[in-house]
Specification:
single chain, 289 residues, alpha+beta, Immunoglobulin-like, 3 domains, 6-stranded antiparallel sheet, 5 helices, 19 strands, 17% helix, globular, hydrolase, glycosidase, alpha-1,4-glucosidase activity, GH
């Protein structure tokens, strides 16, 4: 905010700022302009990529705020909130979590093309390219950090719901849903989604909202509507990306109906199921064998 920035640092901190709950770019009036376009294509690309990631994750972020409102849970939290028995997590000040499932690992200094990230025990999936890192007892990993990118990781055992980013958040939230599943060592995962009109003040009080819970075990994903009080205007679950699938499935079933619209990447252990077109107002099951 105060003082003149550089192109590189503005790119880095614009990417970080995209993952603050209240995200905006501004500076004091006696400094050089630092909006992305003013500082050139590198800052523009870094800000755009980070904001697109933020927009895609807004369904998960929105759900975290619902939980904060109803249970007092934290939205953004330090690592030791989730890993209190890991003393190494106590001193980590340059990484943070969105809820229990998503870790943000920014690059904060100049002339850095990598970042040393501390990953608590478990498997962590890169949300940019779906590569994975297995931390058996909690350890540091060196992650590539191109100037226009920021490392954002999905914790194994969790499910997040995303959408394709559009120019505005209002347009983004009109799209269909894409589910990203990070399987743990036991091939299990859980998650949830809160959804309402997006512009009401009393949706929870009036019960004009939807709450869905998701679980995976034994190669079966189940989506269950716990509360359904808001018309979703035809929005559907269109795609599911399941990370940590060890073996290529021979078949996939959506609500007991076989589908050929799936692919498997053996290098990433990634199963992608397209054209699901399932309404979430009813139970949805996806099975792979």
């Amino acid at each position: 905010f105060n003082g003149n920035t550089t192109e590189e640092l503005c790119a880095r901190w614009s990417a970080l700022g995209a993952f603050y709950p209240f995200s905006r770019n501004h500076n004091s009036d006696d400094c050089i302009d630092q909006d992305p376009v003013s500082l050139g294509p590198t800052v523009t690309a870094a800000a755009k990529r980070a904001l697109e990631m933020r927009y895609s994750l807004l369904p998960y972020f929105y759900t975290l705020f619902f939980k904060a409102h109803t249970t007092g849970d934290t939205v953004v939290r330090p690592l030791f909130f989730e890993f209190p028995t890991d003393p190494n997590s106590y001193e980590i000040e340059t990484q943070f979590l969105w809820g229990p499932a998503v870790m943000v690992v920014p690059t904060l200094y100049q002339n850095m093309t990598f970042v040393n990230a501390y990953l608590p025990p478990g498997v962590w999936y890169d949300l940019r390219n779906h590569s994975s890192y297995e931390a058996r007892s909690g350890q540091y990993f060196t992650l590539d950090s191109p100037l226009t990118d920021i490392n954002v990781l999905l914790r194994s055992g969790h499910i997040v719901v995303t959408q394709t980013p559009e120019v505005t958040t209002a347009d983004t939230r009109k799209g269909d849903f894409i589910m990203i599943v990070g399987l743990d060592a036991e091939s299990k995962a859980n998650g949830s989604l809160y959804w309402d009109s997006g512009d009401g003040l009393d949706n929870i009080l009036l019960r004009e909202f939807n709450l869905f819970e998701f679980s995976v075990q034994k190669n079966e994903l189940i989506s269950t509507p716990k509360v359904f009080g808001y018309d979703m205007n035809g929005q559907k679950l269109s795609k599911c990306v399941i990370l940590g699938v060890k073996h290529k499935p021979n078949s996939v079933f959506i609500n007991s109906v076989p589908t050929s619209r799936f692919s498997y990447d053996k290098n990433l252990n990634r199963l992608t199921i397209d054209s699901i077109n399932a309404v979430l107002s009813k139970n949805v099951t996806i099975v792979w064998k």
